[in-house]
Amino acid sequence: MHPKYQKTIKLRKRGKSYREIAKITSVSKSSVSQWCKDLKLPLFAQKILEKKNKWDREVLIKNNLLKAERVRKENKKIRKEAAPEIRTLSKYELLLVGVALYWGEGWKKENPGEYHGICFANSDPGMVKLFLLFLRKAIQVPEEKLRVNIHIHPNIDAISAINFWSKTTKIPKERFHITRQISRSSRGKRPPNSLPYGTLKLDVSGRQKFQQIKGWIDGLIRQT
Length: 224
Hints:
The chain is of the alpha+beta class. It folds into 2 domains: about 5-80, no CATH class; about 90-220, no CATH class. Helix content is about 55%, strand content about 10%. The chain contains 8 helices and 4 strands, in the order H-H-H-H-H-E-H-E-H-E-E-H. It has helices at about 5-15, 20-25, 30-35, 45-80, 90-105, 125-140, 160-170, 205-220, and strands spanning about 120, 145-150, 175-180, 200-205. The model has no long low-confidence stretch (mean pLDDT about 90).
């Protein structure tokens, strides 16, 4: 028997926690737990431990909340300091950003004998605005070649979606089309706050511009 076993048992019966006992006896907490796991405690000791456990939980919750608030403030500070590091994009930088966005989010597959132009879809307003800046400023796509389709689920109001995306894109409302869809996985039970304005799909007629972007993507690939 370990020389500190009896002392550990006595301390536990007085309502000491495993952590307290380990500190007093210099015995590992795992050993204390093992020795005391089947120990029947007197009622007063049980009540003491219940109060300590409750206090420990409250302290843990409070510490977690404080930590979460510190992290939130730190994240906000980091983002605020990082944002000015991105200066106004030159035409060439905008070209690179737009091509990278299309590489990640645009339609690139070509079917033999089938013609299509640029096709880009996303639900992030910031990303859509940046890609439109690329189309308008970097490769100078005429406004009349921009076609817009909004894919929405049954929980989304079509008029609100059109109003939102028209304001975001600076494209007139009359040039918008709506496509209603139901996800098989969600079976029509998608929460109301999921994609509140649907997904915007931009189509640009023009085989040459599409092939140009494919070529720029090839150029980016050669950098790897």
